[in-house]
Design goal:
Chain lengths: ~120, ~325
């Protein structure tokens, strides 16, 4: 979605960002890549999409919410375009129906767990 | 023809791309068509092309351009758009990775073609049917994809990567796109390697996950020890990152990391849908939980009913006994 918006506006987009710093007219965005952080620098304006964990959400104050109520709301009706991806139905994924094997209760179960770890090849037998 | 975007890192094909190729090969077989691949990079991708024969790829298009030494989503997308008009595939697929989604979204925006993200199945024909994950995999959507070229990303771990049984020959053809400076306005300008030598959760064979039941940030010490003994890595649930016990990068789930280890040990995790989505790629799940009715037990192969704070130290001691002479 964000990429389509950026494309329509003709501005750059950095997606799935987990760190963002604005310096002058440039955004420095960090995202997790296969081998650590990837850093992108883009000129503003830009579209940035963020991932959970970028910050701790700040809840709006009561006076802020009261002020927001008085702001005018602009409504636009987008032009509907058919075609593309047409939903037929939604369904629940099949449950795997796994049968869980209870190895025991409390710390006394540890030897049983070690047996299973051996069977799975996680520790050498 | 079915065209698959293949990602690679440090001269290695990405695990999700191998799954994507497996998906593509099956789709090609069903449609009685061939599978071709696109590799992007300056010189790095070329040696990898031969390895794609094992996954049933008949032709690899290696995109070559001087500016491609670092990842640049728009340049990748523009190269694909130009290749698409040169080779006219019926279907284009990419891994449901950060990059795969990003590049395919750019391709879709540039070509105005429809894109179905996070597909778990596809059925060629008219209509072209797809099944795809919605809301992080808690629901599946069946849909028809209508367009001259179908763009799909494949949900991580929807299929297991399997090499083809037949021995094939792959032909490698270079593709030189015409790119403008604008296509490089977003590109990786720097990298910061992960510190501490900790491996990646996505690639770990054993993952030890901790939830609220671990009790505290300090409580993770025992889990770290368990992971160390098993050559694994520690992850956690959302409750833990919200409490500030572990960094968000350790979070397993819909908005965190998706794992696919041989063994996932879930300690004190009840198993919210969002967490299950992140760990359902695990081959085996061992649960340690006080609550025998916790939802995660429905997904588990093995369970120990008990307090993580007592069971994990006992298990650590028992494993030490078993592996240390």
């Amino acid at each position: 979605m964000a990429i389509r918006v950026a494309h329509a506006l003709g501005i750059p987009c950095v997606s799935a960002v987990k760190g963002l710093e604005i310096r002058d007219r440039t955004a420095v965005a960090k995202r997790e890549g296969p081998r650590g952080w990837e850093v992108f620098q883009v000129g503003l304006p830009a579209v940035i999409t963020v991932k959970e964990g970028i910050n701790l959400p700040r809840y709006p104050s009561i006076p802020g919410r009261l002020k927001a109520k008085k702001k005018p709301v602009e409504r636009v009706m987008p032009e509907w375009r058919s075609g593309g991806l047409e939903k037929v139905r939604l369904k629940l994924p099949k449950e795997q129906g796994k049968e869980v094997e209870i190895l025991g209760k409390g710390p006394e179960a540890a030897p049983e767990v070690v047996k299973v770890l051996r069977e799975l090849g996680v520790i050498p037998s | 023809m079915i065209l698959a975007l293949v990602e690679h890192d440090r001269d290695r094909l990405s695990a999700l791309s191998l799954q994507t190729l497996t998906f593509g090969r099956r789709l090609a077989k069903e449609a009685d068509d061939r599978l071709e691949a696109i590799l992007i990079g300056d010189e790095g991708g070329r040696p990898l092309a031969d390895g794609l024969a094992a996954y049933g790829v008949s032709t690899v298009h290696v995109v070559q351009h001087a500016g491609m030494d670092e990842y640049a989503p728009e340049a990748w997308a523009e190269s694909m758009v130009q290749l698409l008009s040169a080779v006219s595939p019926q279907v284009v697929i990419a891994a449901g990775s950060e990059r795969g989604h990003e590049v395919m979204a750019h391709v879709a925006a540039r070509t105005e073609l429809p894109l179905a993200a996070n597909c778990t199945a596809a059925e060629p024909g008219d209509p072209f049917r797809v099944t795809r994950q919605r809301w992080g995999g808690s629901l599946l959507e069946e849909a028809h994809l209508v367009g001259s070229v179908k763009l799909l990303t494949i949900a991580p771990h929807a299929v297991q990567a399997e090499p083809s049984t037949g021995v094939g020959h792959v032909s490698v053809t270079p593709f030189i796109p015409t790119l403008a400076d604008k296509d490089f306005r977003v590109r990786v300008t720097d990298r910061v390697e992960k510190t501490g030598g900790k491996g990646s959760l996505t690639e770990a064979r054993v993952v030890v996950g901790g939830g609220r039941g671990v009790g505290s940030a300090e409580g993770f010490g025992a889990l770290e020890e368990l992971a160390r003994l098993l050559g694994g890595i520690v992850g956690c649930s959302r409750a833990v990152t919200s409490a500030g016990w572990r960094p968000h990068s350790d979070q397993i789930g819909q908005t965190g990391v998706r794992i696919a280890p041989d063994l996932y040990i879930a300690c004190g995790i009840s198993g919210a849908t969002q967490h299950i989505v992140g760990c359902k790629g695990a081959k085996h799940i061992l649960v340690i939980n006080t609550d025998a009715e916790a939802p995660i037990l429905a997904r588990a192969d093995y369970a120990v009913i008990g307090d993580v704070r007592q069971v994990v130290p006992a298990l650590v001691a028992e494993i030490r006994k078993a592996i240390e002479p």
